[in-house]
Amino acid sequence: MKKLLFLFSFILIVSCNKKHNTTQNANTHQATDSLNNGSTKKLNSSKWEYSEEEDKMGSKNYYAIVKNPENLELEFPYNNSYAYLCIRNLDGQNSLIFSVTEGQIDHNLDGGSIKVRFDSEKPFTVNFTTSPDLSSNYIYLNNSDKLIEKLKTSKKMVIEVLFFQNGIRQIEFNTANLVWNH
Questions:
Q1: Who contacts 153 (Cβ-Cβ below 8 Å, separation ≥6)?
Q2: What segments bear the compositional bias annotation Low complexity (predicted)?
Q3: pLDDT tens-digit map of 95-135
């Protein structure tokens, strides 16, 4: 459990703190501190873990994260990598972030595209943007509100993504029972 909380905290720090200003960075660090103190919640039999934080001005930020439990088995030096899907609501704006603990998601300077499939529906292409610092271990999926609505009604989501020097991987997330009202 401590390893899971550590990984969850790491992903939130990496995926959530580089996109926003210093105040939001401080808020993210407060959220990861609360995660380390065991304040994440699991609802029902859901694989989703939830957290929220309040900044000094009274604004609340919300997070939901789900992990793919399988090692991606990328080539050295990334041979112990796991994938996460993070829904984040900062200042009323939703973001959907795909991240890996190790490895490099292949992309251009302005982003790229991946394939997504919900349940048994037809796969479709989703564009993404990178972080301002061009980190290659997480991406922001475009049209996040539309994708989040699909996540709320799906049982699984498969993401097909190209990794630098590791080829295309298909990563499945158990998305059943997502509760997201933000």
A1: none
A2: 23-32
A3: 999 999 999 999 988 889 999 999 999 999 999 999 878 88
59-73: pLDDT as tens digits:
899 999 999 999 999
Quick one: DSSP state of residue 19? S
3-state SS class at 119? coil
Q: CA 11 to CA 14: how far, in whole Å?
A: 5
* SS3 category, 171: strand
CA nearest neighbour of 102 among 138, 70, 68, 67:
138
Range of the domain at 158: 2-174
pLDDT at 95: 96
45 band by pLDDT with thresholds 50, 70 and 90:
low
| CATH code: domain of residue 17 | 2.60.40.1880
CA 22 from chain center: how many Å? 20
The total domain count for the chain is 1
- Strands (E) located in the chain: 41-42, 49-54, 60-67, 83-90, 93-100, 112-118, 124-129, 138-141, 156-163, 167-174
In a domain, 181, yes or no: no
